[in-house]
Amino acid sequence: ARNINSSQKFIICNADEGDPGAYSDRYLLEKQPLLVLFGMLASAYIVGANSAILYIRAEYPEAINSIQKSISELNSFIATLDFDFKYKIISAQGAYICGEETALINSIEGQRPEVRVRPPFPTEQGLFNKPTVVNNVETLASIYTILNKGGNYYRQIGTEKSKGTKLISLDSSFNTPGIYEVEMGTALQTVLDNCGNGFKHKIKALHIGGPLGGIVPIEKVADLTLDFESFSKQGFLLGHASVVGIPDNFPMINYLQHLFQFASYESCGKCFPCRLGTKRGEELLSNAINKHEKIDKELFKDLLNTLEQGSLCAHGGGIPLPIKNALKYFYDELKVYFIKLT
Ligand code: SF4
């Protein structure tokens, strides 16, 4: 975006935090608004953008108020700079897919929030076909520390490929739920023990990284460190680092049915594999639960592979991951619903 010659460019802060169990964006917007706004200002200056848009979900009214108040404070400072720049807040209306950057851009333009085919990428042709840089809240909030303390300082924190710290959101299944900042590379068990202080009730798995993240059985926690490469190597996904406990007595089949229902409801409908596949997955699991219809293992495998390989974006492409994790680690519990499941 920086190298493209354009009279108008945009910086967008994607604050449409929609992953159940994730509230790190909310924390930063409410408690550290100036960090986020500074990150946008610095990005805009570097890229040559004159407009910064915060796309904040409407269910976060306190975050919107906090950001609005801080913008008012910052505006007098910005007026002293030789830099034509303004902030704008957009109150997002709740579609999960608007967390995807091109659907988000369509939504701002007043269009149906469908995912766009890339290329062209938003940095070339984004909002109103102008160069647009979309970043998440946590990334923008980290810019101040990097500029203030230097790249070398930041590079020393974390692992080879996952630099810095990560905000993790622990849900109410922990004794001390909340939001915690943890250095990348920390053992997951240490994080759960030191931050969460154990569980209120027996948990059989953790769903980490939102609905499209991995389902981590409790016995695998010891093999993981809190960084992208460790999660990827073990077949999971760190994502937004929300941690949701799945109770020991909650049937995994119902959990998977709920995931497919969520994916189907929130699908933007642009591509067939996701539009039809998530609905079909929901039907198969619902019928297995309610009508005792067995699911053909090969058919189900085909469905997951089609979703994974044929979907246009990470929504349809990502939903097979937790389903596959559950089939791998909770085989004994799920096999009664399948035929030919060996
Ligand atoms: S995968 Fe789903 S959400 Fe993504 S473009 Fe296709 S239909 Fe839309």
What does this structure look like?
Helix 1 (24-31) packs across helix 3 (61-78). This protein folds into three domains: 10-151, Rossmann fold, CATH 3.40.50.11540; 165-247, Ubiquitin-like (UB roll); 252-339, de novo design (two linked rop proteins), CATH 1.20.1440.230. The protein starts with 9 loop residues before the first strand and ends with a strand. The chain has 14 helices and eleven strands. The strands form three sheets. Strands 6-5-9-7-8 form a five-stranded mixed β-sheet. Helix content is 44%, strand content 17%. The radius of gyration is 21 Å and the shape is globular.
Q: Quickly name the level 1 CATH class of the largest domain.
A: Alpha Beta
Bin the strand percentage.
15-25%
The total strand number stands at 11
Radius of gyration equals: 21 Å
What small molecules does the structure contain?
iron/sulfur cluster
When the domains are counted, the total is: 3
> What is the level-2 CATH architecture name of the largest domain?
3-Layer(aba) Sandwich
* Helical fraction: 40-55%
Residue stretches low in confidence (pLDDT < 50, at least 5 long) are: none
Along the chain, the helix and strand elements come as EHHEHEHEHHEEHEEHEHHEHHHHE
Shape: globular
**CATH topology type of the largest domain:** Rossmann fold
- What is the first-to-last residue Cα distance? 51 Å
